[in-house]
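Example record

The entry below shows one chain as it appears in the dataset: sequence first, then structure tokens.
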Amino acid sequence: MSRMNELSIAIDELRNAAAALNSVADSLTQLFSSEEPAKEEPAPKPITKEKVRAELAAKSAAGYGVQVRALLKRYGAAQLSAVNPDDYEDLLLEAQAIGTEVGADD
């Protein structure tokens, strides 16, 4: 083969390799530029009646029985079993706050 023919073949091979590299680069760009699916946060565990009951019992035992009864009354109940389960989270948060207010009598 002549040198020019060899050079022409080498140039064609380089062009084919460049085209293949461009194709791979385009594929990688497309693969990694697409938005990743949003990672789902695990749903918080629902607040159980037992957890609320334990908190209310602890507050009552700590001398906050009057506040516990007033809290239940705000939720339209005389006892925990009459509270709507949808209100357990808010009730628990309010119960946890009993005795932590600034100026609270201990």
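Notes for this example: Helices lie at 3-33, 49-74, 88-97. The chain has three helices and no strands.
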